[in-house]
């Protein structure tokens, strides 16, 4: 990272600020709309984003125990979704700079998680945006090797190439599309995968 290049934490903060400003424009009906995360409304996704902010190690272990690890996210959503939308938004505005677990790896968790879920919300509402190039170029290389996101098994044996920014990954039949669509497809969003093209696009889609 060059001296002038913002840190992952700085980018995570800007991404959350953009998300908070967008959420402030939503109607009650939009908050209740199902997101790209199956079974989660927009409100549920926001609850998930903030649910790890003030969680210490003891709290995390307790949540894992309650949710049997695989359902820990659902436990967090259930706890925070009880808040009103105004309360959720106020909480997010108090945590624009990731804290706790989402500050992990220099803000990487907050940046990647926040950007993906921002798009989950916007796509579900039919209110797309172009993720700033600088953010997308920093995020994409972080995803293929992240075991928590499951991208590795989805893109194995494929070559991914973004057609709107400079980024490619892997070897094999090509899958091309926007950086945003590739990001969401790698993390299991079928809607985005359907926008991709190339000899390997069908293989990736079939793995979702």
TrEMBL record:
Highest taxon of source: Bacteria
Classification via Gene3D superfamilies: dinb family like domain (1.20.120.450)
InterPro entries per the UniProt record, alphabetical: DinB/YfiT-like, Maleyloyr_isom, MDMPI_metal-binding
Mycothiol-dependent maleylpyruvate isomerase metal-binding domain sequence ranges: 15-94
Pfam family, one: MDMPI_N
Coiled-coil ranges from the UniProt annotation: none
Record GO terms (molecular function): metal ion binding
NCBIfam families: maleylpyruvate isomerase family mycothiol-dependent enzyme
Name used for this protein in its record: DinB family protein
Originating species: Mycolicibacterium peregrinum
């Amino acid at each position: 990272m060059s001296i002038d290049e913002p840190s992952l934490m700085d980018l995570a903060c800007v991404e959350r600020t953009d998300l908070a400003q967008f959420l402030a424009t939503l109607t009650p009906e939009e908050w209740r709309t199902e997101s790209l995360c199956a079974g989660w409304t927009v409100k549920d996704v926001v609850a998930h984003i903030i649910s790890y902010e003030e969680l210490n190690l003891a709290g995390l272990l307790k949540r894992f125990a309650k949710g049997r690890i695989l359902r820990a996210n659902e436990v967090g959503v259930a706890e925070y979704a009880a808040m009103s939308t105004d309360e959720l938004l106020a909480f997010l505005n108090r945590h624009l700079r990731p804290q706790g677990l989402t500050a992990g790896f220099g803000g990487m968790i907050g940046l990647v998680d926040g950007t993906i879920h921002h798009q989950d919300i916007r796509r579900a509402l039919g209110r797309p945006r172009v993720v700033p190039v600088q953010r997308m170029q920093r995020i994409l290389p972080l995803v293929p090797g992240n075991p928590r996101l499951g991208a590795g098994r989805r893109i194995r044996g494929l070559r991914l190439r973004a057609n709107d920014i400079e980024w490619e990954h892997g070897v094999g039949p090509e899958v091309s599309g926007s950086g945003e669509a590739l990001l969401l497809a790698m993390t299991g969003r079928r809607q985005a995968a359907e926008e991709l093209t190339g000899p390997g696009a069908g293989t990736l889609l079939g793995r979702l």
